[in-house]
């Protein structure tokens, strides 16, 4: 996972968890984690196969039910210096649209905070 993808995934997981959602990660072959709200458990399972489907479950929705939404990530997809490219697609609903906007703001905060910290 390149640095831009790392920024995106950290910001995305932060935004998902800040919206009281839980996460399941499908890597195209199997679920590498299911129904988790623990960032330290989620982050290591990302980018095992080069792409992930991140399913989210809002409060009151069981992982046995349909997901509240999803985000599709493709890693090293020309995303150097453009972190949002890793986020290739997502559900178009109010929750996911909100999380996408918060993720973009989080990426900007990481990007510019890191640049200022290294100046």
Break the fold down into its secondary structure elements and pairings.
Blueprint: H1 3-18, E1 22-26, E2 31-36, H2 39-42, E3 51-57, E4 69-74, E5 87-90, H3 94-117
Antiparallel strand pairs: 1-2, 1-3, 3-4, 4-5
Helix pairs in contact: 1-3
Question: What key phrases describe this protein's structure?
Answer:
single chain; 119 residues; alpha+beta; five-stranded antiparallel beta sheet; 3 helices; 5 strands
Report the β-strand fraction as a percent range: 15-25%
Give the end-to-end Cα distance, rounded to a whole number of Å. Answer: 24 Å
Any low-confidence stretches, pLDDT <50, length ≥5?
Answer: none
Give the neighbour order of strands across the main sheet. 2-1-3-4-5
Count of discrete domains: 1
Overall pLDDT metric: 89
What spatial form do the alpha-carbon principal axes imply? globular
- Order of secondary-structure elements: HEEHEEEH
Fraction of residues in helix: 25-40%
Q: Total number of β-strand segments?
A: 5
Radius of gyration: 14 Å
Main β-sheet, in a few words? 5 strands, antiparallel
Structural class: alpha+beta
Number of helices: 3
Report what the structure shows.
It is a single chain. With 119 residues, the protein is an alpha+beta fold. It has one domain (3-112). The chain has helices at 3-18, 39-42, 94-117; strands spanning 22-26, 31-36, 51-57, 69-74, 87-90.
């Amino acid at each position: 996972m390149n640095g831009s993808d790392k920024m995106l995934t950290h910001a995305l997981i932060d935004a998902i968890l800040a919206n009281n959602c839980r996460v399941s990660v499908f890597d195209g072959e199997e679920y590498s984690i299911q129904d988790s709200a623990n960032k330290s458990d989620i982050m290591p399972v990302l980018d095992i196969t080069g792409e992930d489907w991140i399913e989210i479950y809002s409060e009151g929705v069981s992982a046995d039910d349909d997901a509240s939404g999803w985000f599709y990530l493709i890693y090293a997809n020309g995303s150097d210096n453009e972190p949002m490219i890793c986020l290739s697609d997502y559900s178009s609903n109010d929750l996911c649209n909100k999380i996408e906007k918060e993720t973009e703001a989080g990426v900007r905060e990481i990007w510019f905070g890191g640049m200022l910290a290294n100046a």
